[in-house]
Design a protein that fits this description.
Elements lengths: L1 E2 L3 E5 L3 E6 L2 H17 L12 H35 L4 E4 L13 H10 L1 H15 L3 E4 L16 E4 L2 E3 L6 E3 H16 L11 E5 L1 H4 L4
Parallel strand pairs: 3-9, 4-5
Antiparallel strand pairs: 1-2, 2-3, 6-7, 7-8
């Protein structure tokens, strides 16, 4: 599985499922809290800190944003693990422990989105569901998973928005699809497996908010 700000991509070299994240809903309440703070602030002091009603309102928005992400993480982790269990697959995920250390390089809006999304909480819920459902979970290092050709291991170049192409063998696919295929390859290598020459997998879009527990 590969995680980005907008989607979680789950699959292998044959099939692919995409789960929407709840970042837009959470960011809506985050912006409401920030706008209320600005509205009730002055150059020399933050007036909202002395107004109990405003403080409660701001905390309510912030709590709502956190609850949206927490609820989404619970639902989507269950869907992913049940999908793996149904097909008798293991769950292979990137170890994003050091992601926060790299956030300083990102634009502020993107940085805030990633912090709100809280990859660490998603990892914890996935690991918990894997333990509960008896599904093996394997972690791999994220370095190069979305920039290395899964066919010949060459460095990929950008072809269009989120689409990459290998200048050596001509393989072309979405960045997330490439990451999923590379994670699969690394995982099978760890497990002593082998891969046939990969092709771009079939894509299936899934929204945990729309489909609920039917997956």
């Amino acid at each position: 599985m590969d995680v980005n700000e907008k989607e979680i991509v789950v699959g292998n070299s044959r099939i692919e499922h995409r789960f929407e994240t709840a970042i837009e809903k959470a960011m809506h309440y985050k912006r409401l809290a920030e706008n209320l703070q600005k509205k009730c602030s002055f150059p020399k002091y933050n007036a909202w800190l002395r107004r109990r009603g405003v403080r409660r309102r701001i905390k309510s928005f912030q709590r709502k944003a956190r609850n949206i992400i927490e609820d989404w993480a619970k639902k989507v982790s269950r869907l992913i693990v049940l999908l793996a269990k149904r097909h008798q697959y293991a769950v292979a995920r990137e170890d994003l422990t050091n992601l926060v250390n790299n956030l300083r390089k990102l634009p502020k809006e993107h940085k805030v989105s990633l912090l709100i999304l809280s990859y660490r909480r998603l990892e914890q819920w996935i690991d918990l569901q894997c333990e509960k459902q008896g599904v093996p979970v394997i972690t791999v290092k994220p370095r190069g998973t979305s920039s290395t050709c899964p066919k010949c291991s060459s460095r990929l170049v950008e072809n269009s928005h989120r689409n990459l192409r290998c200048p050596r063998c001509g393989f072309e696919a979405n960045r997330d699809t490439i990451a999923v295929m590379n994670i699969e390859s690394i995982t099978l290598s760890k497990m002593g497996g082998s891969l046939a020459a990969p092709t771009a997998p079939q894509r299936t879009d899934v929204s945990p908010n729309r489909r609920g527990g039917n997956q």
